[in-house]
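Model: Ready when you are.
Researcher: Fold this.
Model:
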Amino acid sequence: MKRDMLEACVFATVLCGFFGIILKRNLVMKIISMDVMSTGVIAYYVLIASRNGLFTPILSNANRGNYADPVPQAVILTAIVIGFSIQALMLVGVMKLARDNPTLETHEIERNNAP
């Protein structure tokens, strides 16, 4: 029951980000929506990888039993770093675009730059 509720929340987060990308016209809002969607996807991956009875692979003298696989954790950390760098690159692109256009609205930019 609790896991189903978490999956529903994560799925709602992904949908909020997806519809934000489609429906928002401001470029900064699109980037923020992409971040929300990325966060939802990462949370879903973490939710799937989590299981009861597994411990984090940290060295200690205590024998705790089964350890969780550290590879998904490393993949998620890599995804977070790559997502952050992509957002930074997109924000730099938006800043350069803002120099030439007085607005960040996509339809205004398309109208101003149409041949």
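Researcher: Now this one.
Model:
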Amino acid sequence: MPTTTIGGHEIHVNDEGFMTEYDEWTEDLGQALAAQIGVEMSDEHWQAIQFLRRDYPDQGETATLRRVSTVGGIPTKQLFVLFPKKPAKKMAYIAGLPKPRGCV
């Protein structure tokens, strides 16, 4: 797997730039990843990212928008406001998780 350095952290990534090692992620790294894609993190952003991080080990895959909305309690419309255009991909990228299999 290729590696890259982001925010002073050397991390393993796939061909699309998504992190491949769950345990390499930290909040500082998440902040740096968010800055790379132009997302300024707020408490609401972190709520979504923390849900993804908690959900991934149990489910074995990155949560879809529907799961973040129904289980995580963040309305889909709000996810599009927080992470414009491609919220599922952007959330997964910031959370250091694989790209979700489906968008919804």
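Researcher: Key takeaway?
Model: Strands lie at 3-6, 9-12.
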